[in-house]
Design goal:
Length: 155
């Protein structure tokens, strides 16, 4: 009954649906276009178009929903705000500090561009940026979510 779908284009999206104790959970793994790599010049429209397409896709999704990954947009940007208007930011709810995830291959990460967003029926119980990148240029974000009605959710 579980379903996995991959979308390709300027931005990549993977969609997974699983049955958790009779409740359908939908997950998206996201890598939105980097505006600095979208062609020969800086192109913020590529990112904005990716956010618009993603918001259109998730608008039709049943809750509960988790959308996580590399969004290539800072937490002070208009594109981030569009996402935060539609979903909750798990690190913003339960994390401490600035949550910088990029660049992991420098002495000091200076941007928060990786997120775990979720629908209203989920609660962020704990969130942190992990200190080991595993060779990536991003630090991973770990968010523990609770879902009302599941015995292991802690609610």
């Amino acid at each position: 009954n579980d379903e996995f779908t991959v979308f390709t284009g300027d931005a990549s999206r993977q969609r997974l649906q699983i049955d958790a104790e009779g409740r359908l959970l939908t997950f998206y793994n996201i890598h939105l276009a980097n505006p600095t790599h979208a062609g020969p010049r800086y192109n913020p429209a590529a990112l904005t178009e990716g956010v618009s397409a993603l918001l259109e896709m998730i608008d039709a999704e049943p809750a509960p929903l988790v959308v996580a990954g590399d969004f290539n947009t800072a937490s002070f940007s208009a594109d981030y705000q569009r996402l935060a208007d539609a979903l909750k930011d798990g690190f913003g709810q339960a994390g401490r500090g600035l949550g910088f995830t990029y660049p992991a291959d420098s002495l000091l990460p200076v941007l928060r561009i990786d997120y775990v967003f979720h629908s209203d029926d989920l609660s962020a119980l704990h969130a942190e940026v992990l200190g080991e990148s595993g060779g990536s240029d991003h630090y991973p974000v770990l968010v523990e979510l609770g879902l009302q009605g599941l015995t292991d959710a802690g609610e």
